[in-house]
Specification:
Blueprint lengths: L6 E6 L2 H11 L3 E8 L4 E8 L2 E7 L18 E5 L2 H10 L8 E2 L6 E6 L5 E6 L1
Parallel strand pairs: 1-4, 5-8
Antiparallel strand pairs: 2-3, 3-4, 6-7, 7-8
Pfam family, one: Glyoxalase
Keywords: Metal-binding
GO molecular function: metal ion binding
Length: 126
């Protein structure tokens, strides 16, 4: 029925700060960026392999629940070849990461960090 994930949508409280984070800190490439005047909203499509992140701005969006165990999307996970190398690159760019852990079921390493709005992001060893 489903072949793959096309995109994940994220609404930022501060569009320029989040755009900088996802493009300059995480290094995601912009596919397209448009100002949607009728909605007073930016939409920026970012490439992540064959998937996309849609980064939006909206006037005065409500805050997200802060706990990752809240109902709904828990976190967004990125595949990496080396979790240690990814953590080193993120740390060099001022991003705090949790301690690297090992998944007891797969034996793969992973860790978490957060975007500027506190959205939990994970890096997971491929």
């Amino acid at each position: 029925m489903f072949d793959d994930i096309h995109h994940v949508a994220i609404i930022a409280s501060d569009y320029q700060r989040s755009r900088h984070f996802y493009t300059e800190i995480l290094g995601l490439k912009i596919i397209r960026e448009v100002w949607r005047a009728q909605r007073q909203s930016w939409k920026c499509d970012l490439a992540v392999g064959d998937t996309q992140i849609e980064l939006f701005s909206f006037p005065e969006p409500p805050a997200r629940p802060t706990h990752p165990e809240a109902v709904g999307l828990r976190h967004l996970s990125f595949k990496v070849g080396s979790v240690l190398n990814a953590v080193e690159r993120l740390t060099e760019r001022g991003v705090e990461c949790e301690a690297i852990r090992t998944d007891p079921y797969t034996g793969k390493q992973f860790t978490f960090f957060a975007d500027p709005d506190g959205l939990p992001l994970e890096i997971y060893q491929t």
